[in-house]
Design a protein that fits this description.
Layout (H helix, E strand, L loop, with lengths): L27 H22 L7 H23 L4 H23 L1 H6 L6 H22 L2 H15 L14 H9 L8 H23 L1 H13 L5 H17 L2 H18 L4 H14 L9 H10 L3 H30 L12 H7 L1 H15 L4 H23 L4 H21 L1 H15 L3 H41 L2 H14 L1 H16 L4 H18 L4 H14 L8 H10 L3 H11 L6 H7 L10 H6 L1 H24 L8 H13 L5 H19 L8
Helix pairs in contact: 1-2, 1-8, 1-20, 2-3, 2-5, 2-8, 2-20, 3-5, 5-6, 5-7, 5-20, 6-20, 8-13, 8-17, 8-20, 9-10, 9-15, 10-11, 10-12, 10-14, 11-12, 11-25, 12-14, 12-25, 12-26, 13-14, 13-24, 14-29, 16-17, 17-18, 17-19, 17-20, 18-19, 20-23, 21-22, 21-23, 22-23, 22-24, 23-24, 24-27, ...
Length: 697
């Protein structure tokens, strides 16, 4: 079994030719055209995000979708080597998507005035909008999400024919098209709003940092800190992928970038190919829950819940650290079990040296974190972070070309003053400084190469944003169906009915739903569907709203590690040269604690730094936070011992079962289970300590 190839990453650059500047775009005139469309797309998103050009939100969303359609169909047709006829059809669909966007712009005010009373032309445009969005998702992501969205769309049209409790009152064709293709409840709802603002900006931010060498910086830092320790190669993978997740927020993208280095490194030092792929997949998927950037879902969650993004970050940070601690512990035990030692310090880079050499790349990330935690909107923080990144890349290029250390110092001081002036007088100062630096860079070779890097980053960011944007557009149809028909209530009521008798069964049911949906659709639609259904239901059962949404978010991510689809694992398969299913099995082992942490957070919301729960009521909020973190660390340690079967010495099956029972008992939040879990943990520790130490394999 092989993974479905990514149609947007399988296009090789034309080596040495005019299109060698960036992979992912086809060679020839078509590739150049699509490349420049991507550059224009990113430029449009930047000027609207920075309010250099102000358009109504509805128009910005429509143009965003128009660009997505314009790029998706021709790129996929080129990637799959279609003939001239199919490529012509692809361009026809692309231009139809653009026509929809231009119609929304042209008719913006008239559409508002006649909302609910669409003209025949409105209906035609609405149908075209739906067809192009469904088509883009089909060619880009396969049939699963279009089928699910199609079922919801059919339900809005024909649900009145179904038996109770699924029946609804019925809606006219005109009402359904108007609801889905116009306004802010369907295609142009919250997901596409978030895609056209926060998500695109942060993808661009990550693209610029990657082009500037952030992957190498993170890898060098991880190598310098952990490369010489037991199992150092795998620990480097965990740390570097976790760090990369702070800027990319994409699990599969992490696998195919950092994995190109870490997986061969792990294999070189003795790790099995399947385990190496599993470690990289687990660490890379964790990037979506690692603040400050996290994944696209985090921005949609903040917008859906109506909370500041920093609240989502606050809820995610402790579980994210525990997730990576768990992965780190697993690879440490696996290395000890097989006697895998670290690398020689002499052949490792210096972490401090890497930071000294590329410190400027950390500055935008640090400022981004500060702005997010200072209460600024993600849109503002992302715009500033991106602007400062470009400023530093261009300024750094100029500084490196100067012969005198004094002149280089003057450049860096000048850039600092520009940043300070921006905070005082606004975005115009930053834009003016960037334009000046661009003009200066035109006059020397290194500067021109840096400008090409920035141009390529614009194109690469737009291409990377396509799957996320298309998924956000199509999942709007599902949201539109739910808001129009109230379809979420039926399944939600079932969860509530189960949970009134057993909350754990409701959580398991929700987890299974997330994992099943995740077998065919990306994390974003998975989260939106399950949170719309399960979020209100779990809230009715006393689970804090943000905890219920994080629960769903976690298992939507873990779905990319679970067989039979396991997208992240199949992305790692060609790099590891191993079967994707074998990698998936190893990834589940490494991520074992990740399946437990969400359950612990439901029973003890203090794990996500949220108020509520019996423990916080009994002993106070901060003592509850300290206790649940301590208990989680114990549970992670026990899970690792149970899964790997080695803690300084090999463990027999019965002792591994005892460790697993102890870990499982610590999940709940009742005093009796805590005491039982601690007692079993102590017993397990004593029994392990009394085992003879055997030679490693």
């Amino acid at each position: 079994m092989t993974a479905t190839p990514d149609p947007l990453t399988d296009i090789p650059a034309e080596a040495g030719g005019p299109d060698h500047h960036i992979s992912g775009f086809p060679p020839g005139a078509t590739g150049r055209l699509l490349f420049w469309i991507a550059v224009v797309f990113s430029s449009f998103q930047i000027v609207t995000a920075a309010h250099l050009v102000d358009l109504p939100s509805q128009v910005t969303r429509a143009l965003h979708v128009g660009f997505l359609m314009l790029m998706t169909f021709p790129l996929v047709a080129a990637a799959r080597g279609r003939g001239a006829g199919l490529k012509t059809v692809a361009w026809a669909f692309a231009l139809a998507g653009v026509a929809v966007a231009l119609y929304q712009w042209w008719q913006y005010e008239p559409l508002i005035m006649r909302a609910g009373r669409p003209l025949p032309m409105d209906l035609v445009i609405g149908v075209v909008a739906l067809v192009t969005v469904f088509g883009a998702a089909l060619v880009l992501m396969g049939p699963a999400l279009p089928i699910i969205s199609g079922v919801f769309l059919a339900y809005t049209l024909f649900g009145q024919l179904l038996p109770p409790p699924l029946i609804h009152r019925g809606y006219d064709f005109e009402q359904v098209i108007d609801h889905m293709a116009f306004g802010t409840e369907g295609i142009y709802g919250i997901p596409i709003y978030v895609s056209s603002t926060y998500i695109f900006l942060f993808i661009l931010f990550g693209a610029f940092l990657e082009k500037a060498g952030m992957i190498r910086l993170f890898t060098d830092v991880a190598l310098g800190l952990f490369g010489h320790r037991q199992g150092g190669a795998a620990k480097v993978a965990v740390v570097s992928s976790g760090l990369m997740g702070t800027i990319s927020g994409s699990g599969v993208a992490n696998v195919v970038t950092t994995g190109q280095f870490t997986i061969p490194l792990m294999k070189r030092f003795g790790y099995r190919a399947a385990f190496a792929g599993g470690v990289e997949s687990t660490a890379s998927m964790g990037g979506q829950i690692m603040p400050p950037v996290m994944g696209a879902v985090a921005f949609i969650m903040a917008e859906t819940l109506g909370v500041e993004y920093v609240e989502v970050v606050k809820a995610a940070i402790v579980p994210a650290l525990l997730y990576f601690l768990s992965a780190f512990w697993m690879v440490h035990l696996e290395a000890g079990k097989h006697g895998l030692r670290g690398l020689s310090k002499a052949e490792l880079p210096s972490a401090l040296g890497a930071l000294k050499e590329n410190w400027m790349l950390i500055v935008p990330l640090g400022i981004l974190v500060y702005l997010l935690f200072a209460g600024y909107t993600p849109l503002f923080a992302g715009t500033v972070g991106l602007g400062l990144t470009v400023l530093l890349i261009l300024g750094g290029s100029i500084a490196l070309g100067l012969p005198s250390a004094v002149l280089r110092a003057i450049i860096w001081v000048g850039l600092g003053l520009v940043a300070a002036a921006f905070l005082q007088w606004g975005i115009e100062v930053l834009v003016a400084a960037i334009l000046v630096l661009i003009a200066v860079c035109l006059f020397f070779k290194g500067g021109r190469e840096t400008l090409l890097l920035c141009r390529d980053s614009l194109a690469d960011g737009a291409r990377t944003a396509l799957p996320v944007g298309v998924a956000c557009a199509l999942v709007g149809v599902i949201i539109g169906a739910m808001t129009l028909t109230g379809a979420a209530n039926t399944f939600g009521q079932f969860i509530v009915a189960v949970g009134q008798n057993n909350l754990f069964l409701s959580l398991v049911l929700t987890m299974i739903t997330c994992l099943l949906l995740g077998m065919g659709i990306p994390t974003i639609p998975n989260y939106i569907i399950t949170s719309s259904i399960a979020g209100p239901a779990l809230l009715a059962l006393g689970v804090p709203l943000i905890v219920s949404h994080m629960f769903v978010f976690y298992f939507g991510i873990l779905a990319d590690l679970t067989p039979p689809v396991a997208l992240a694992c199949f992305a790692a398969a060609p790099i590891a040269r191993e079967n994707g299913l074998k990698i998936s099995i190893e990834a589940i082992k490494v991520a074992a604690a990740g399946f437990v942490i969400p359950f612990m957070a439901v029973y003890s919301p203090a794990l996500m730094l949220q108020a509520g729960g019996p423990l916080a009521e009994a002993i106070g909020y901060w003592p509850a936070v300290a206790w649940i973190i301590t208990k989680s660390v114990f549970s992670i340690g026990l899970w690792g011992a149970a899964v790997i079967g080695w803690v300084g010495r090999p463990l027999p099956a019965w002792l591994r079962v005892l460790a697993m029972i102890a870990a499982f008992t610590l999940v709940a939040a009742w005093p009796i289970t805590d005491w039982i879990g601690l007692g079993l943990a102590a017993l397990t520790a004593v029994l392990i300590a009394r085992r003879p130490v055997a030679a490693t394999a």
